[in-house]
Structure formats: structure tokens, C-alpha cells
């Protein structure tokens, strides 16, 4: 099993928030995000605080992506695709 890089973990959290909102139309509970992003709950809480300070998610009990977070996720996906095309991931 390979270790994920920090940006990969943060992107997984943002993807999880985005997918939950698209699928259910509601904000995600932190526990659901932890499960779908495969991140331990205590670490997820710390990551969410960091993402909130960066303005990518809201600081709520049920966090959601901000517009800045949505833009970041789009750019991250594009960058991951470029890396993949060159065989760097």
C-alpha cells in the first residue's frame, strides 16, 4: 500500500465534500467525509481547520466547499490529469 501525499489527502477531503453535496444535495457530516476520504476522524478535523483557514471550506459542524474550494478542486483535477498523461503519478 502506498502512502498518499498531503495534497492527495486534502484533495480527497475536498472531493468527498463535493460528491456528497452533488449526490444528496446536503452538506456532509464530518464522519461521512472521514469514511469516504479514508482519513481518521481526528486528523480530518485538523485538516478541515486548515482548509477553513485557507478559505476552501466553511467552518461548520457540517462543512461544505466554498467557491474558492470548488475552483481549487477543478485545478487540482486538471493538474492530476496532466501528471497522469506524463506517467508521473
Structure description:
- This protein starts with 5 loop residues before the first helix and ends with a helix.
- It has one domain: Orthogonal Bundle (Arc Repressor Mutant, subunit A).
- Helix 1 packs across helix 4 (67-85).
- The protein has helices at 6-24, 30-37, 41-53, 67-85.
- The protein has 89 residues and is mostly helical.
- Helices cover 66% and strands 0% of the residues.
- The model has no long low-confidence stretch (mean pLDDT 90).
Sheet of most strands: none
Helix/strand order, N-terminal first: HHHH
The number of helical elements comes to 4
**β-sheet strand percentage:** under 5%
Distance between the termini: 15 Å
Instruction: Tell how many strands the DSSP assignment holds.
Output: 0
Structural class: mainly alpha
What are the key terms here?
89 residues, mainly alpha, Arc Repressor Mutant, subunit A, globular
Short recap of the structure:
The chain is mainly alpha-helical and 89 residues long. It has 4 helices and no strands. Helix 1 (6-24) crosses helix 2 (30-37) and helix 1 (6-24) crosses helix 4 (67-85).
